Amino acid sequence: MNNPQQKPITASPVIYDPETYFQQREPDRAVFLSAHGWQGSEIKLLNEDCAFRRYYRIKKDNKVSILMDSVPDTAGIATPGHKLSDYIRVGKYLSSLGFAVPRILEENEADGFLLVEDMGDTTFRQALDSKLVDGQTLYDLATDVLIGFYERTNVNDIELPLYTESHIHKGRRRVIDWYLPALRKQRNPNGLVEEYLKVWETIEQNLPPIKYTFQHIDFHLQNLMFRSDANGIAQCGILDFQGAMRGPLPYDLVNLLDDARIVVPHDIDKACHARFVAALKPEDQEGFEAWYTVLKTQFHARVIGQFIRLAIVAKKPAYLRYIPRLHKAMRRNLDHEALHPLRDFLKDAGLDFSGSVADVTKLDETAELISPEAF
Predict the structure, then answer these.
(1) d(C-alpha 258, C-alpha 160), whole Å
(2) pLDDT tens per residue across span 132-158
(3) Which of 9, 62, 98, 369 could form a disulfide with 181 if both were Cys (CB 3.0 to 4.6 A apart)?
């Protein structure tokens, strides 16, 4: 699909401020669009994600598509788990299995540009908030997609990174790296992170075996598009799948039902959990519940520290408003018997998750307390 006659795209300078970076890529976007017949088109910025990536709706005559402008994979500021090359190959794999992912119309992987199918404006979150579709229907549909992943994918058919060797798994340390200094208003003592990770190592070693399967890794309502003109699981358009991994079976369900940004009603949570487990083979149900709670705790430990990191590094303090939900989730998780060693360690470190957002909002002071080795 690349045009071999197109002009080479100018090299964009490596700049760490996203606004400046994407402003300076405007000529590059114009070259890419012109090379594929979209010169003079209407361009509207839609959104950006936590990675160095932006999305634009492109309109010309009666044609509409989405331009993805991403930091090239070779750039030093590329976000882990957000390679464009992975987006392309994982997308093609999921499409071959009948999942609804945006079709790639044109690509220039080397320079970080894709032109993809426009799946509309309605995310599952928007459909829920606007009451376009009721919550149980949306969550059932999302759960059915996860059941589809379980039934249709085979981790031997596509190369995927391993969850336990990934930045996602490593991120469980962020509650210590970022949240604890923000809370205690002091630097972490030497060796604390290492002690914390040893506790996790012991917990994981004592868990029953669990099947490792295809995991989207970022499966939540904002990454799912509601497609009213489709049927079955094709009603769910799937975005942001480039970080897919070979991971423990419950991970994506945790991500769907325990997103800190939205409170899932208990009846929906319980119904979707049961729906997913009922679809599993009996041998894959064994150990599921213990792993589910452990993965929830790792997820929340990563996210609560990540929200502090985003507030300091990316200047996005809005995420701090979700911390009370994470406090509640962590207290509930740590009641599980398998996690009592972690509960005791965190309590000794001064973390019982009983505080308020006000305890961690002095970001300028916190920035000075973060270790250079923090993840």
Answers:
(1) 24
(2) 999 999 999 999 999 999 999 999 999
(3) 369
Based on the domain organization, do 354 and 265 belong to the same domain?
yes
**Which residue range(s) make up the domain with 175?**
124-367
- On whether residue 374 sits in a domain, the answer given is no
187 domain-assigned: yes
Residue 75 has pLDDT above 70, yes or no: no
CA angle 240, 241, 242 (to 5 degrees): 95
**Which residue(s) pair with 45 in the sheet?**
56
- Which residues lie closer than 8 Å to 129 by C-beta, 6 or more apart? none
Burial class from Cβ neighbours inside 10 Å (0-12, 13-18, 19+) for residue 207 reads: middle
Q: Give the model's confidence band at 51: pLDDT under 50 very low, under 70 low, under 90 confident, else very high.
A: low
Q: What is the pLDDT of residue 50?
A: 54
**Which CATH number do you get for residue 60?**
3.30.200.20
Paired with 63 in beta bridges are 60
What pLDDT score does 81 carry?
63
Alpha-carbon gap, residue 249 to 98, rounded angstroms: 21
For residue 83, what pLDDT is reported?
Answer: 83
What backbone torsions phi and psi does residue 111 show, to the nearest 5 degrees? -105, 0
| Last residue within a domain, chosen from 81, 116, 151 | 116
Q: Within this chain, do residues 93 and 186 fall inside the same structural domain, yes or no?
A: no
pLDDT tens digits, residue range 180-205? 999 999 999 999 999 999 999 999 99
